[in-house]
Amino acid sequence: MRAITDALVGRMAADPMIGFHFAKVDLARLRTLEFQHAAELLGGPVHYEGRPLRAAHAPHRIAGGHFGRRTTLLRQLLAEHAVPAPIAEAWLGATEALRPEIVSPRPDCD
After folding, report:
1. Cα 32–77–12 angle (5° rounding)?
2. Which contacts (CB < 8 Å, 24+ apart) does range 89-94 have?
3. The three-state (H, E, C) secondary structure of 4-60, written as one string
4. Which of 24, 53, 71, 80 has the fewest CB atoms below 10 angstroms from its CB?
5. Single pTM value for the model
6. Whole-angstrom Cα distance, residue 99 to residue 79?
7. 28-63: buried (b, 16+ CB within 10 Å) or exposed (e) per residue?
8. What number is the average pLDDT over the span 79-102?
9. What is the pLDDT of residue 23?
10. Domains located in the chain, CATH noted
11. pLDDT (tens digit, 9 = 90+) per residue, 28-68?
């Protein structure tokens, strides 16, 4: 899981569509928080220590397309790491359930 979340942060930061959101982000800290959050979402014995997602993402005006791009990058990594389908589906489903906490309410940008 850590390899996937570490790679996800790297890909998001380098991505031409969403990378600008990470220009001033401490990527080492974000790698830790992504791991904690994913592990907790999937029922692991890890506690997410970051701020509430809505508060952490509100200043960034994240559009639905940005969220979708992150999901695409995650889906690619899950496939590359041969994550079993039930786990990949659970991870992607849990991620999608977070959309209202992360995406700014701008339906014109989905």
Report:
1. 55
2. 90/42, 91/38, 91/41, 91/42, 94/41, 94/42
3. HHHHHHHHHHHCCCCHHHHCCCCHHHHHHHHHHHHHHHCCCCCCCCCCCHHHHHHHH
4. 24
5. 0.91
6. 22
7. eebbbbbbbbbbebeeeeeebeeeeeeeebeeeebb
8. 96
9. 93
10. 2-109 (1.10.490.10)
11. 999 999 999 999 999 999 999 999 998 998 888 899 999 99
CA proximity to 31, closest of 11, 6, 49 = 6
pLDDT, the chain, mean: 93
| Residue whose entry in the numeric block shows the structure tokens 């014109």 | 108
